[in-house]
Amino acid sequence: AWSRAEIDAATDRQWWYGLGMLPTTSHGEHRMRAHERLLGALLVLLVVLTLGATLSGAPPGWAQTQRDPTKLLIGHWDGEAQTPTGVYDRTLIIKSVEVRNGQLMAIGEYGGPGASRMGSKPLPVQGIVEEINGEIVLRIFTPERRTAVLTLQQDGKRLLGTMGGGDIVGMSRQGDDALRFRKVE
Fold first, then answer.
1. The pTM is what?
2. 8 Å CB contact between 117 and 143
3. Pseudo-torsion of CA 46, 51, 57, 59, nearest 10°?
4. I need a labelling partner for 138 at 20 to 30 A (CA). Which of 49, 103, 104, 106 fits?
């Protein structure tokens, strides 16, 4: 019969063996357990990274870019629209970026002095966020009834693009206007 001390010692040794803290009977078994622990740790890391990208609000494909638009686009952007009649200050405030109907949408405000029918107060806008050739692109329909297409630059602090279409309903003109924004920190 085994004594209580012998049973406790054997159980304790098995537990420490399971953690890989005590040497096993052969070098091959020890190496195999080390590989199993490493493989398990890598699997846990993969699950955590995948889950983190999914919970960030970005669609799964965005995880590969390592440029999460939900974090990069949100904020206050100051800039200007350059038109044939002059250069006008503009403000873009992106309050949130969220998935709606499988599409990544930016919700915010756009405006500035000199904008037709807008006054100086920014008005609500929504935009579609896309990844095109590895770049983050924001498309918004402005209160001026024009489509702005802005590309986030590699530094994550500048949006550059154009605004097309006529600025008055029923009226159109040739060419696009340049838009430039810089993120206000």
1. 0.60
2. yes
3. 60
4. 49
